[in-house]
Amino acid sequence: MDAPPPDTAVTVLDGGLATELERRGHDLSDDLWSARLLLEAPEEVVAAHLAFFAAGAQVATTATYQASFEGLARRGLDGDEAAAVMRRGVALAVAARERHAAETGRADPLLVAASVGPYGAVLADGSEYSGDYGLTDRALRDFHRRRMGVLATAGADLLAIETVPSLQEGQALVSVLDDLPDGTTAWLSFTCADERRTRRGDPVEQAFALARESSRVVAVGVNCTAPQHAAALVAAAAEAGGKPVVVYPNSGETWDGRTRSWRGSAAEGLDAAAVARWVEAGARWVGGCCRVGPAQIAAIAAAASGLRPGRLS
Q1: Is 265 exposed, middle or buried (0-12, 13-18, 19+ CB in 10 A)?
Q2: Do 121 and 134 form a contact (C-beta atoms < 8 A)?
């Protein structure tokens, strides 16, 4: 994996890949979510990545969040076939990056982040928003180790360890990360219930402090969290984590795991003033998560242009 660029400016992330795929007409309500299209319509995954690059994103986050050996086994894939699907997710993002650069002549660095979702993603029941799995630390490490090993050697620039709902799972993920091949780096991003707690109820300061324990973690922060909580969480991550901060909130809508649908309406908090506050507090990587499409990423990119993080480590 290549090292991320120096911490001298804001890097704009993409938005919700599934959001863009749904806009393009795909029903993603099954267990594999976006990862299903790695099997059925890989060209559509490339198109979604291209839409975010065109909007100003500098990072493509792969469609591997919900790709796991267990989930793909339920579709009849053996271990080698499942690993190939995960590598395909990275290859498609790399192909989109190369195509966008060739078509636009864009010279600034574009990165590919291999998405590592939490254990709750394989359950496909929304339990990543509770973190209440009833698993031991060892079971969590064993679940993540095989998949992270594949993604770490698939050609991405770094891993996006994201939507982590608990301190326990964060600890397991950092432990596995530290055992991966030399040069493997990642951002570590939690999903939070409010400005003080992870979805599992852990103090956010304890979760963010995990970044201090690993040289492999290059940024720490939050995603798939309501935008109104983002500014306070960025400040907490900068203080407790001692690393540049990553922030990519969702729209403010709420996922209902039982009906597999979004409820509520988009909240305020993804405007230029919010982006400026996040960056001043230490955000180095800024984007959007679920229900955030290319148009909103374009607005975030415009707001972030020329800003410099207020805290650098």
Answers
A1: exposed
A2: no
Helix (H) or strand (E) holding 223: strand 217-223
Distance CA(265)–CA(270), nearest Å, equals 13
Please state, in angstroms and rounded to a whole number, the distance separating the CA atoms of residues 134 and 34.
26
pTM of the predicted structure, to 2 decimals? 0.93
In tens, the pLDDT along 126-155 reads: 888 899 999 999 999 999 999 999 999 999
Q: Max CA-CA distance within the chain?
A: 50
Q: Who contacts 51 (Cβ-Cβ below 8 Å, separation ≥6)?
A: 20, 294
Query: Beta strand pairing status for 261-263 and 245-248?
Result: unpaired
The secondary structure of residue 15, as a DSSP letter, is: -
Q: How far is the CA of 213 from the CAs of 55, 102, 113, in angstroms?
A: 35, 39, 21
64: tokens are: 């591997």
Residues 6+ apart with CB under 8 A from 153: 181
Sorting pLDDT into bands at 50, 70 and 90, what band is 286?
very high
